[in-house]
Amino acid sequence: MKLAYKLSLLALTVGLLVSIPLIKAQDASKAPPPDAQGPGGPGGHHGKGGKGPGGPRQMIDMLTKKLNLTQDQVTEVSEIVKSHDAAMKALRDNQELSKEDRRTQTQAIFKDIQTQVRAKLTSDQQAILDKMPPLGPPQHGKKKGGNPPPPSN
Asked: Is 122 inside a domain boundary?
């Protein structure tokens, strides 16, 4: 009786050990492609890695769709947005900043992006941009409104 019990236990253990790699392999084959793994890509947070809400690619796509950008404008806007990506990464990585300082500097970067993008738009596109919420991360708990009109020169 003890031998039969030990053999059964051994068979069960071997069966489990053999099935674990098979289950993991099956799960890995169902994983979404790297660019569809959620906010920020694999293990990331929005805005990191160019993916997810607030990431450069999503901002460019959103502006292209809402403003009906021409191909030349898409190229120009992409360069503007991507040129600020390194500054955003450095800001995220700087652990010495307080939350408020990080928020202030992030808002300044997005305001700069918006100013530069606006300069590349037609007057009709500028009117649409001015009615959109400001570019940048969502303002949790704050009332969403349109963009303030640009200062007149």
From this structure: yes
pLDDT digits (tens, 9 = 90+) for 12-53: 676 666 666 666 665 555 555 444 444 444 333 444 444 445
Domains: count for the chain:
1
What pLDDT band is residue 150 in, cutting at 50, 70 and 90? Answer: low
User: What one-character DSSP code corresponds to residue 4?
Assistant: H
Question: Taking the CA of residue 29 as centre, how many other CA atoms within 13 Å lie in the half-sphere pointing to its CB?
Answer: 6
- Residue 61 located in a structural domain: yes
In-domain check, residue 125: yes
3-state DSSP percent of the chain in helix, strand and coil, to 5:
65, 0, 35
**Roughly how many angstroms between the first and final C-alpha of the chain, as a whole number?**
94
Provide the whole-model pTM.
0.56
String of DSSP letters for 126-153? HHHHHHSPPSSS--TTS----PPPPPP-
Between 123-131 and 99-119, two packed helices, what is the crossing angle to 10 degrees?
160
Q: Where are the beta strands (DSSP E) in 43-143?
A: none
Residue 104, amino acid: T
Domain membership of residue 124 as a residue range: 45-131
